Amino acid sequence: MSRVVVVSGGGTGIGRAVAEAFAADGERVVLVGRRPEVLEATAAEITAAADGATPEVEAVAADLSTAAGADRVREVVGARAGGVDVLVNAAGGNVALGAPPAEGSPAERAAEHWTGNFRANVLTAVLLTEALRDLLAPGGRVLLLSSIAAYRGSGTGSYAGTKAALHPYAFDLAAALGPRGITVNVVAPGYVERTEFFRGALSAERERTLIGQTLNGRAGTPEDVAETVRWLASAGAAHVTGQIVQVNGGAERGR
């Protein structure tokens, strides 16, 4: 019997690759995000690629940085599926990248960046998880997407700080949900190509630098992260919980 897998940020990049991996396994996938047109197109494409071999991929548009958005997902998923077996919190981003410079005083600019990244990276994960918490099936899986920036910084502080905030949340959640056989883990990627993360602001020189920091000499791919998530959600990882798994080609160590 197929599992119900909810993937936030599932319309593009890492989230999409995660959705494709679970769909390929015949799971019932629900994509969640802010942009309905992107979600619906992605859901249709993944469903068509499966050619009838998997349940239809569904899309639920919601702003997960708000309680109302998270509650909407709970309402829809609860009505359609009744419960959740796997929750992958892949929504997020760095509001300081590719955006016009913030105006105002240094404190006002910092407030804008920190508040924006808190909403994008912490609230989107925490609110959705808490909204679906009692719908999680025994033996379920919760995955949160962090970043190498949580270890090395991000140059702006706010992105790294908000990604790092997910780590203790995951530890506490793992302890709370463990008695139900539910595992909670964090995946922390390094530089991953073919995503919208940099919003066109990544120069060729900076990309070479990021790749040069890896020990295997290549960029990460969305599929690298998706396969790690897929394993953590498998029966084989039932005794792995409260962990942070880095997927960065060794770049956290630097070169």
TrEMBL record:
<comment type="similarity">
    <text>Belongs to the short-chain dehydrogenases/reductases (SDR) family.</text>
</comment>
<dbReference type="Pfam" id="PF13561">
    <property type="entry name" value="adh_short_C2"/>
</dbReference>
<keyword id="KW-0560">Oxidoreductase</keyword>
<dbReference type="InterPro" id="IPR036291">
    <property type="entry name" value="NAD(P)-bd_dom_sf"/>
</dbReference>
<dbReference type="InterPro" id="IPR020904">
    <property type="entry name" value="Sc_DH/Rdtase_CS"/>
</dbReference>
<keyword id="KW-0521">NADP</keyword>
<protein>
    <submittedName>
        <fullName>3-oxoacyl-[acyl-carrier protein] reductase</fullName>
        <ecNumber>1.1.1.100</ecNumber>
    </submittedName>
</protein>
<feature type="domain" description="Ketoreductase">
    <location>
        <begin position="3"/>
        <end position="190"/>
    </location>
</feature>
<dbReference type="InterPro" id="IPR052178">
    <property type="entry name" value="Sec_Metab_Biosynth_SDR"/>
</dbReference>
<dbReference type="GO" id="GO:0004316">
    <property type="term" value="F:3-oxoacyl-[acyl-carrier-protein] reductase (NADPH) activity"/>
</dbReference>
<dbReference type="InterPro" id="IPR057326">
    <property type="entry name" value="KR_dom"/>
</dbReference>
<dbReference type="InterPro" id="IPR002347">
    <property type="entry name" value="SDR_fam"/>
</dbReference>
